[in-house]
Amino acid sequence: MAARKRTRSSRTYRRRQAAARVRDTSEIENCLFIGITSFVIVFAGMLAHASLFPYIRDAVWSPSQSHRAPAADNPVYSRAMLLASRYDSRPYWNSPKLTVGDPTSRETADSAIEHLIPCESAGRPVDHLDTNGKMSYGILQFQDWPEWERISGISGDPHNVDDAIRMAEWGIQHGMIDHWGCASILHITGT
Q1: 36 vs 23, 33, 77, 81, CA distance in Å?
Q2: Residues 86 and 171 grouped into a single domain
Q3: How many whole angstroms separate alpha carbon 50 and alpha carbon 68?
Q4: Range of the domain at 95
Q5: How many domains does the chain have?
Q6: Coil, helix or strand at residue 102
Q7: Alpha-helical runs (H) found in the chain
Q8: Which segments of the chain have a pLDDT < 70?
């Protein structure tokens, strides 16, 4: 009887070990399944986001695609992109500093804009909520475009490269360089 008890006990022991191995294998398989499934879901989401992004961007920013002016269309924009390619977002100003409130020439305004565009938006028509809680629009990050239109008499769209540059030229020529935070970052102004 003692021999029989040992046999059952060893048989039970072997069964328990086999069941534990199956459980361990099942847990590993479950972990792998969850990991792979999670990866596939995240990867599919990333692919979907990347494929939809141009359509979303064009619908939100400007269906007319007027902001996608080739560099050759606007010389100021073209020179700004050249500065961006050389100095990234920080093409520091090496000319005499501009004073807030003092009028300046169109050439100086254009040069300042060429430096501001890489810093403000890297040349892309970006719409985002700024640190002051206001929305900023276009390549020069205008926050109060309707007010600028009213004061200057210039109409347009901040997402349109030509309109944004024309409005910035007017503003800088009239001493409003302090509108852009990048003016002080790039040392365009004396502050």
Answers
A1: 20, 5, 46, 42
A2: yes
A3: 19
A4: 71-185
A5: 2
A6: coil
A7: 2-60, 75-87, 106-121, 145-152, 161-173, 182-185
A8: 1-10, 18-26, 45-72, 191
Q: What is the pLDDT of residue 191?
A: 56
Residues 96-127 pLDDT 10s:
999 999 999 999 999 999 999 999 999 988 89
Is residue 58 within 8 Å of residue 96, measured between CB atoms? no
Q: 187: which residues sit within 8 A by CB, 6+ positions away?
A: 92, 93, 97
Q: Which residue has the tokens 């009213």?
A: 150
User: What tokens were used for 61?
Assistant: 């920013």
> Residue 116 has which token pair?
């501001």
116 and 168, same domain (yes or no): yes
Rounded Cα–Cα distance for residues 100 and 189 (Å): 7
Report which residue type is found at 146.
Answer: P
